[in-house]
Amino acid sequence: MLRSRRLETLLGAPVAELTAARLHGAVDARIAESFDLDWKGEPYGNSDKDKRELACDVAALANTAGGVIVLGVAEDEHARASAAPGVALSDAYRNQILQIVASSVAPVPLFEVRMVADGADGSRGFVLIAVERSAAAPHAVAVGTTLRYPRREGTITRYLTEPEVADAYRTRLAGHARADERLAKVWADGISRLDVANRPYACVALVPDVPGSMTINRDVFEAFRSTWVGRNPNLFAVGMQTYRVTVGQGRLTADGSNQPNSPTADWLAIDLHTDGAGFFAAHAGNPRPSNGSTSPSIQHEQLVEDELLANGILTGLVELAAHAESTLASGTALVLAGVHGIAPARPTYLGHARRGFGDTYNETPLTHPHEPVPGALPLDTLTGRGRPAVALASRLCDQIGQAFGVAELGQFSPDGLIRAPYFAAIQHPAIKQRIAAAGFEIANDA
User: Fold this and answer.
1) Domain assignment present for 169
2) Domain edge (last residue) among 98, 129, 160
3) Are 206 and 305 in the same domain?
4) How many domains does the structure of the chain reveal?
5) Cis peptide upstream of residue 289 (ω within 30 degrees of 0)
6) 204 and 125 within one domain
7) What is the DSSP string of 296-355?
8) pLDDT (tens digit per residue) in 15-70
9) pLDDT tens-digit series, residues 124-148
10) Which of 94, 126, 160 is the last residue of a domain?
11) Which end of the chain has the lower number of beta carbons within 10 A, N or C?
């Protein structure tokens, strides 16, 4: 749900945690409406005019800075909260709001409807319509036979002029281009510091298209240090942990190297940027044992293990989404994923053995880096984990596998289940505990 530092400070709690007592407190404090807060003493009705008003109010917040509409709190002539009569609560009314917005606003913005009961029986209370700041703006509403583009200005809503609409579309296109450029840079910066001499890496980069904000200071760095020194974030792998934490320009970093002065990261690496972007990499395989041979073709062959690949991709999505959420980023999470460390001098196979070189899926090794695989998912969906996150990981892993000539990998199902038969490591007690804590579902299907 919508996260806003301003609203949290104003109302005393995040929107997702607002209670009836907090909303009554807003009335007592005479908190005024603003560009991101709209009081409504009455619920929206069923007339065409009322439906259009609901659609315009939601679109206006999405076109401005996001915010929340509170049904059940009345305002005075100065737009200050003045009473809390509440409104009737029902699932039918919630579904009506969802349907009206979905059918009346284009493109549909990210928004949620939350009921806050006020009283023992739960029949009355407040309806919160929380709208995310949108990178897909401008959002249009049909008014008669034309499309209109509402925008919130202070306590009022107005329609954009034609030149303003043109500017908004240019801003949308420029924003998409900036997000793509930012994603490519985060990926390039991340892979540039990995030590690929002894192992390949499963890598993920993530950029929210509506950036967040994180301040780096001494306290923040010390908190980061206490979290990441000696930590193993991997969902499906044991024996790896981070040793070093550092500050980079506009980012906090941690990696698994135990060499204090080494310029490269080993085993694990994570970069957490101040705008909510991030990069994650985890060890994904091993070199072929040389057996005493000095032949470069044998010494430098390597195996990417499918379980470690799946581990790196899903773990990266989870860790980076959590960071983006902590910075109050929103919108869509844009993702790149792939294997780094493939080169002509390091022919690379994809296989499924956990010890030694093992069996391989592809007969001909990959000798050149593959294109990183793109993906996207609404950030609040990704931070919710569960099936959507695993489904995204499934698609990314399968497309990485296809770069090796493998049609499909088995660790994750397309509908978002973790397939136990394809994870030997899933029997480890610590791994079972991590999966359960993360809220993912395990299935025994093949």
Assistant:
1) no
2) 160
3) yes
4) 2
5) no
6) no
7) HHHHT-EEEEHHHHHHHHHHHHHHHHHHHHHTT-EEEEEEEEEEE--BTTB-EEEE--SS
8) 999 999 999 999 999 999 999 999 999 999 999 999 999 999 999 999 998 999 99
9) 999 999 998 888 899 999 888 889 9
10) 160
11) C
